[in-house]
Design brief:
Layout (H helix, E strand, L loop, with lengths): L10 E8 L3 H8 L4 H9 L3 H22 L8 E3 L5 E3 L8 E8 L2 E8 L3 E7 L5 H11 L2 H9 L5 H19 L17 E2 L3 E6 L5 E8 L4 E4 L3
Parallel strand pairs: 1-10
Antiparallel strand pairs: 1-5, 2-3, 4-5, 6-9, 7-8, 8-9
Helix pairs in contact: 1-3, 2-3, 5-6
Length: about 220
């Protein structure tokens, strides 16, 4: 979908682009808790670490604005299936969030009273045989038709587009994997099962992204700031 303006009253999900830089890392590291700092230290690539810190800092800034707290004061917990959540007392306000990063791009999604998931993937070259195997085991019949209908030049992009839609839905549900990924059908329309929906999200060339959330009538927009 084309991102809408926050002026629309229908907007329920706000998406933020996290920008990595040396200054952002220096500032953001001071806001992270011990678990986040351990994750940051585990990255072998400085660029990947900086992007992770930028994403966490952006999340803390935006949640802090909504909750009336400093970025470093925000505390996180884990839901029943390991999905990151806000910890008490911040959880009482009903804000949900999700973060995704790939390559040099990181996105943060925030929604109130709606479980939300976001996924971004860099479009990398994948051997045709590997795509065939993954799609056969993980794509629904409708997703397979959509992927196979793409021309040779667009097949890899379509593979990642279907994959990001599926990942966004799973992240919104709060589960990393399900027994039958092919049962999670994200096409032909935005509706997924009965109470969930997913939209493609416009990002810079070389990447694809998708946003999923609870409900069927929500809209998403780029956040300001």
């Amino acid at each position: 979908m084309e991102p809408r303006s926050l002026a629309s009253a229908a907007v329920a999900v706000e998406v933020y682009l996290a920008r990595a830089s040396a200054d952002a890392t220096a500032r953001g590291l001071g806001w992270l808790d011990a678990a986040e700092r351990r994750r940051a230290d585990a990255f072998r690539s400085e660029a990947a670490r900086d992007l992770f810190v930028a994403a966490r800092a952006t999340l803390r800034i935006q949640l802090g604005r909504r909750l009336g707290g400093a970025p470093e004061a925000i505390r996180f917990g884990l839901g029943d299936h390991g999905k990151p959540t806000l910890a008490a007392p911040w959880d009482a306000a009903g804000w949900h969030f999700n973060v995704s990063h790939s390559g040099t791009l990181a996105l943060v999604a925030i929604a109130r009273s709606l479980a939300v998931g976001i996924d971004v993937e860099r479009i990398d070259a994948i051997p045709a045989g590997e795509m065939d195997g993954l799609s056969a085991s993980h794509f629904s019949a409708a997703e397979m038709r959509r992927w196979r209908a793409a021309d040779a030049a667009g097949r890899t992009e379509m593979f990642f587009r279907v994959w990001t839609r599926k990942e966004a839905v799973l992240k919104a549900w709060g589960v990393g994997l399900v027994d039958d990924l092919a049962a999670v059908d994200t096409v032909p329309g935005p509706r997924v099962l009965e109470k969930w929906s997913v939209r493609d999200w416009a990002v810079p060339p070389g990447y694809v992204a998708a946003v999923a959330a609870e409900g069927l009538d929500w809209e998403a927009a780029w956040g300001d700031g």
